[in-house]
Amino acid sequence: MDSTRYQDHIANINRHLAPLRSGIPDTLQGFGAMARAAMAPGALDEKTKELIAMAIGVATRCDGCLGFHGKALVRLGASDEEVREMLGVAVYMGGGPSLMYAAHAWESYREFAAAATK
User: Fold this and answer.
1) How far apart are the first and last CA of the chain?
2) Signal sequence span per UniProt (predicted)?
3) Which residue of 29, 43, 99, 117 pairs with 91 in a disulfide if CB–CB is 3.0 to 4.6 A?
């Protein structure tokens, strides 16, 4: 398995988003504003919100979500224990398909964690 699978994946997504940023700037600016507002600290801190986002990525089987949110969880200092516990809740809520995707989410988080220690 390539040790930078999710890093490459989100870089590729960003490359493909570039023409959308220039072609439909209002839409992407609106999405960005919504993301910033949703993830801003409030009653829930940013790390908790990223854990929720990763769980939803598992439930919806979104590889890009696993990459972006795995990277964010490392930046925010999520522990292995926090990520594993979140994945347990995601599997509980999504059953067998979520269990299979939880393995991918763990891979994403660990990939970014390994890169952060280099």
Assistant:
1) 19
2) none
3) 99
Contact present, 86 and 49 (Cβ < 8 Å)? no
Q: Is 41 helix (H, G, I), strand (E, B) or coil?
A: coil
Topology (CATH) of 5-116: AhpD-like (1.20.1290)
- The answer to whether 3 and 118 have CB atoms below 8 angstroms apart is no
Distances (CA, A) of 69 to 25, 62, 83, 107: 23, 11, 11, 12
* Residue 113 to residue 36: CA distance in whole angstroms: 23
Assess contact for 87 and 52: CB atoms under 8 A: no
Spell out the domain ranges in the chain: 5-116
pLDDT in tens, 13-69: 999 999 999 999 999 999 999 999 999 999 999 999 999 999 999 999 999 999 999
How many residues are there in the chain? 118
Structure tokens at 115: 């890169």
